[in-house]
Structures are given as C-alpha cells and as structure tokens.
Amino acid sequence: MDQPPETEEIVHVVDDDDGVRDSMCFLLESEGLSARAYPSAQALLDTDPPPAGCVLTDFRMPGLDGLQLQAHLTARGIGLPVIVMTAFAEVPAAVRAMKAGAMDFLEKPCDPAVVVEAVRRSLAHNRRCRAASAAAADAARRIAGLTPREREVMDLLAAGHSTKEIARNLGASPRTIDVHRARVFHKLEVDSLPDLVHLALAAGPE
Fold first, then answer.
1. Does residue 66 contact residue 19 with C-beta atoms inside 8 Å?
2. Among 81, 85, 70, CA closest to 123
C-alpha cells in the first residue's frame, strides 16, 4: 500500500465487518474526504500512518480492540485523533477510551450526519495540533541558535525584565545587554518583545 503524502488528510476506517468498512468509506468519500479501510487495528498499525488525518474505529474487534488501538497509537507518538464506534452496552469502555485520549465516541447504529460531523471535527483538531507542533519545532530551532548568554537575556526579556534589570541580574552594563538584545531579536527573527514572548511560549519548556 503506497503511503499518502504527509499533507493529505486520511480518515483511517478500522472495522472487521466488511460491510461497515465499505459503507463508512463510501459515506466519507461522498463528502469529499479521503478514506482508507483496514480489517483490524493491527493492519492500521502496520502501515505506520502519517500524521495528517484521524481514525474511525469499531470498539469490539478480534485482536486489538478500539481502546487498545488508541493506546498503541499514543505509545508510538502518533497523534491521529481517534473516534470510537460502539454499541450501547460498550459505552463505559468508550468513555475510558476518551479518558485515554480518544477524540469522540459514536453509538451504533451511527447516524451518517453525526459520523461526518465527528470526522470533520477530528480533522480540524488534528490540523491545529500539527500547526502547533510545527510552530514549536520552528521556535526551538531558532532558540537553539542563541549563545548561552543570549539565551539568558531572552529568558529574562520574556519574563518581563527591563534592560537595566537584566544588566543588574547578569552583572553586565545596560549597553552590553542592548547589544545582546539586538542579536537575540535578529537570530529569532522577531521585531518586537510580544513576538519574542509568543515564540518562547511556542517553543515550550526545555
């Protein structure tokens, strides 16, 4: 099976029932969404799915169930949102899946409109998460280019300290701190203190 481009959003439909898989893929594709079908949770895991998209899975399946699939995806660092389809008697298990990180659960028989809405919501969530991850990686890359002293200056600037306070804290002259500040702004490619703060927040803690 060829891997789709990482930017292509794929809805991974996992169900051991051929009819359910086919009907769900038909529904999603009729709504302009790309879907791929898998007869088991392991079949999906074996493809090492790319980061764009979501998973629509049955809960009760031979081998790994929907809850175990969610756990395996999380353990592998695969951030695809998971929607679990479940019979009424399995709702408590579906709630556990949500507590473990699943995006949503749908009670069978699933209303087609509800399925499409849940999938679109999950895809939007996945898009936001990927954008945040890319921003964090870019911010970390820029910050990594700072010298240790420039990093100290950046941290103190981001914490709201003035040039005079930073100079006093680091035992340097305000003029020297101004030079470091200018270099920090240049290396981080920011034009203002608010931009610097946003970048530091995007990078997150070390």
1. no
2. 81
pTM for the structure as a whole: 0.75
Which residues are paired to 105 by β-bridges?
84
* CA neighbor of 170 nearest in space, from 150, 187, 192, 197: 150
Determine contact, residues 120/92, Cβ cutoff 8 Å. Answer: no
- The 10s digit of each residue's pLDDT in 49-61 is 988 999 999 988 8
pLDDT, residue 88, reads 66
Residue 5 binned pLDDT confidence (cut-offs 50, 70, 90): very low
DSSP string, 139-172: HHHHHHTS-HHHHHHHHHHHTT--HHHHHHHHT-
Burial class, 42, CB count within 10 angstroms (exposed 0-12 / middle 13-18 / buried 19+): middle
Neighbour tally for 45: CB within 10 Å: 17
Where is 66: in which H helix or E strand? helix 66-75
Biggest distance spanned by C-alpha atoms of the chain: 74
Least confident of 7-11, 37-41, 148-152: 7-11
